[in-house]
Design brief:
The complex is a heterodimer of chains A (about 270) and B (about 220). Chain A is α/β, with parallel strands linked by helices and about 270 residues long. Chain A has 11 helices and 11 strands. In chain A, helix 4 links the parallel strand 4 and strand 5. The longest helix of chain A is centred in the first third of the chain and has 13 residues. The two termini of chain B are about 25 Å apart. In chain B, helix 1 packs across helix 7. Classes of the chains: A alpha/beta (about 270), B alpha/beta (about 220).
């Protein structure tokens, strides 16, 4: 048994993230022998059977009129798949949160609304409990000429700067009652070069709530690095799992071989 | 054969859909009823008492809906499953919200993990809330463990924990120190984790509950 097992506590989590547009999984999930790769229920069922620790749905639907379809997606998934579900994208009001939780989501990811509406996270946490409030932070490296690395919070998929320091923002959101931070490096997202480890570590060490590392995973060593060097509590990835490059079991086996405490289940 | 009824107590604390869907998933012979009314709760064959959020709100909602007495009665005479906050509320008191009295069905106290880390002298305190899959070791036999591995993994999300309760503690988890993951006494069984979110092991536990006669 390794040290982590001796200390106990939760295993480091692997979380596949699915982009959903108008109720359909997009950006190609390519499992072998899946009948309908766009069906969120079927994809969730696959990840459930594969031993994923949680699933995150990110709603990328542009039109707010069509967001209601996501509620139906969550209802359908939560009726058949009995594992933790996080839903993010377009959560702007307590009513949005209630709707998602009632549909069967366990946690909601709040991003832009946390920045636009001061007090929103504090209100949400006191109303629904910190356990279901995940603050999603999109961070990008900025060069202010001082020679020290810092990161700034961006919105709109990394296009709009906010001037807010990402580490300070994470600390403030945790103090407001966020139960978890989902931290995405906009510099690394989609690059397959691995997490921004200094960013991940800076945020993980600054807050006492769990941190999910996101953005840049291209191989299994990146998952290990996120936990060992980035001090992340969970790692989120999309393409390496969706395209069948690696299974969740292979990822866990690799992490366990690097002394990371993971939950391994017979699939 | 008469269909049994499982009453899932609805007092505004968290989503009940997942737990009711999970019960329906494992038991197609019972009717699952989400309710906060006294009569259906009295008539039900089994009670599920879930809960998420803060204990202060939990106890004041139970009082406002006049559910305290009904729950205490149910917890005396039929198979009763508490989940998460629904387990913590069974204790005498909680440190949360500046100190709150619970239903007092079980002697013991609910405390914050940070106080537990301090007291146990844990050198590197873990993140709070404890969020994720944690192993549960059973410390005494119970019919609801049927088909579940020793130890097995369950999904936890909580910042406050139930201290070890002696005989009433039936399952233990470790987070720097040991805490109560499961309590069991007579017809009461309650879990700190979420069986409705714990995949195979959780569904097995719920299936066991739907067939349990309430004896140990």
């Amino acid at each position: 048994m390794n040290d982590a097992a001796e200390i106990g506590g939760p295993a480091k989590r692997i979380i596949p993230c699915l982009d959903v547009d108008q109720g359909r999984v997009v950006k190609g999930v390519r499992f072998v022998d899946i009948r309908d790769a766009g069906d969120p229920v079927e994809v969730a069922r696959r990840y459930d059977a594969a031993g994923a620790d949680e699933i995150t749905f990110l709603d990328i639907t542009a039109s707010s009129d069509e967001r209601e379809t996501l509620v139906q997606v969550v209802e359908a998934v939560a009726s058949e798949v009995f594992m933790p579900l996080t839903v993010g994208g377009g959560i702007r009001s307590p009513a949005d949160i209630r709707r998602m939780l009632n549909a069967g989501a366990d946690k909601v990811g709040i991003n832009t609304a946390a920045i636009r509406q001061p007090g929103f996270v504090a209100e949400a946490a006191s109303r629904f409990g910190s356990q279901c409030i995940v603050v999603a932070i999109d961070a990008k490296r900025v060069d202010d000429g001082s020679g020290t690395t810092r990161w700034e919070v961006f919105t709109h998929g990394g296009r709009r700067a906010t001037g807010i320091d990402a580490v300070e923002w994470a600390v403030r959101m945790a103090a407001d009652g966020a139960g978890e931070i989902l931290l995405t490096s906009m510099d690394r997202d989609g690059t397959r070069e691995g997490f921004d480890l200094p960013l991940t570590r800076a945020v993980s060490d600054a807050v006492s709530v769990p941190v999910i590392a996101s953005g840049g995973v291209g191989g299994l060593q990146h998952l290990v690095d996120g936990v060992v060097d980035g001090h992340a509590d969970a790692v989120l990835a999309a393409s390496i799992f969706h395209f069948g490059e690696y299974t969740i079991a292979e990822a866990k086996e690799y992490m366990a071989a690097h002394d990371i405490f993971v939950r391994r289940v017979d699939c | 054969m008469r269909m049994g009824t499982i009453a899932v107590i609805d007092y505004g604390m968290g989503n009940l859909r997942s737990v009711s869907k999970a019960l329906e998933h494992v038991d197609d012979r019972s009717r699952v009823l989400i309710t906060h009314e006294a009569e259906p709760i009295r008539r039900a064959d089994r009670i599920v008492f879930p809960g998420q959020g803060a204990i202060g709100d939990c106890m004041s909602e139970l009082r406002r809906l006049e559910l305290e007495q009904v729950l205490l009665e149910a917890a005396r005479n039929k198979p009763f499953l508490g989940i998460c906050l629904g387990m913590q509320a069974l204790l005498e008191c909680s440190d949360e919200n500046g100190g709150v009295d619970g239903l007092g069905l079980l002697a013991g106290r609910v405390r914050h993990f940070r106080d537990g880390f301090d007291e146990a002298g844990v050198p590197t305190p873990g993140k709070v809330p404890l969020m994720g899959w944690t192993q549960v070791r059973r410390v005494r036999p119970h019919p609801l463990w049927h088909g579940i591995d020793e130890p097995d993994w369950f999904y936890f999300v909580h910042s406050y924990y139930v201290e070890l309760l002696g005989d009433a503690t039936a399952g233990v988890s470790r987070y720097g120190f040991d805490f109560t993951a499961v309590v069991a006494r007579d017809n009461i069984f309650a879990t700190q984790f979420h069986p409705e979110k714990s995949q195979r092991a959780g569904l097995q536990l719920l299936a066991n509950f739907t067939r349990w006669d309430g004896t140990c």
